[in-house]
Amino acid sequence: MSASRSADGVVDGANLRRPTLTQVAAMAGVSLKTASRALNDEPNVAEATGRRVREAADVLGYRLNGIARELRRGATSALVGLISGDLTNPFYSAVASGIERELRQHGLQLVTANNDEDAELERALVDAFLERRVRALLVVPSGVRHEYLAVESNHGVPFVFLDRPPDGPTADAVLIDNIGGARAAGEHLLRGGHRRIALITDLARMAPQRGRHDGFVQAMAAGGNEEWRPYLRTDVHDVRRAEETVRELLALDPAPTALFTTNNRLTTGALRALRGHPGNPALIGFDDFDLADVIGTTVVAHDPVAMGREAARLAYERISGFAGPARTVTIGTTLIPRGSGERPPA
């Protein structure tokens, strides 16, 4: 079978049709009601008839909609939704892993969707998950206002926010100590004798990035350093742009002697730009990443799996009846010196 997709991404049902119960009944030579009873293991269906119906279903590839069936019987869904940024980012995939491990212990299943940092898409995904009657919804928000979620929360679907606090509704949240981690990175570079320190951040509208910016600025202010300010670069959102930005910074006269990148993608871009560069400035990145220990990259580390577990725990407690005030869990950070952040000023 072939499927076509319209400009808005919707699959054309005329070209892709799932086999129906009517087709199963026709192939088995039974009534629609008998086919339904056989596939649902209801009584008073002859063994031979039931076998014939099941064989027809196998041939056609027909499968019962288990979720719809359970909901019709009055049961609740076992699904919990996660709306996050790009799951190809190791940070988000680790968060999802933590959530899934915790939910599995309680007989719940995780379903995920990517909001592409698009507030309108995020809202559409929230609506789609709620239509499927998820037991809870975990959100890494892309938008800056979330009042619309408060109405749904009052209808019994608990929300938990991850990485970024809700702006509007009162809800549980699991956050990283962004200010403390960034302040530690700034202090570390100052202790190493650096003054011309470049700060490279992702989208300034995102709360974690604002926190990392503010923590770094606090360190610079406490150290009496103003020489970093010409090297501030914000809204650097991907690896390619980070690489370009660092190359531009290194071409300045005078160039920065140290770099602080505020997430793993920006650190990756910086490492590409530094490859073979004679100045070899110091580098600290926020977020640990695979092989950072192998290549000697100093990072501000935290535990995204623990973040996922905590979010799932909060959600399960709400599902189980907890009705107390909103809670915020903060995941701590640790600066791990591995060599790149300890290089002295050139």
From TrEMBL:
<keyword id="KW-0805">Transcription regulation</keyword>
<dbReference type="InterPro" id="IPR028082">
    <property type="entry name" value="Peripla_BP_I"/>
</dbReference>
<dbReference type="InterPro" id="IPR010982">
    <property type="entry name" value="Lambda_DNA-bd_dom_sf"/>
</dbReference>
<dbReference type="GO" id="GO:0000976">
    <property type="term" value="F:transcription cis-regulatory region binding"/>
</dbReference>
<keyword id="KW-0238">DNA-binding</keyword>
<dbReference type="InterPro" id="IPR001761">
    <property type="entry name" value="Peripla_BP/Lac1_sug-bd_dom"/>
</dbReference>
<protein>
    <submittedName>
        <fullName>LacI family transcriptional regulator</fullName>
    </submittedName>
</protein>
<dbReference type="InterPro" id="IPR000843">
    <property type="entry name" value="HTH_LacI"/>
</dbReference>
<dbReference type="Pfam" id="PF00532">
    <property type="entry name" value="Peripla_BP_1"/>
</dbReference>
<dbReference type="GO" id="GO:0003700">
    <property type="term" value="F:DNA-binding transcription factor activity"/>
</dbReference>
<dbReference type="Pfam" id="PF00356">
    <property type="entry name" value="LacI"/>
</dbReference>
<keyword id="KW-0804">Transcription</keyword>
<feature type="domain" description="HTH lacI-type">
    <location>
        <begin position="19"/>
        <end position="73"/>
    </location>
</feature>
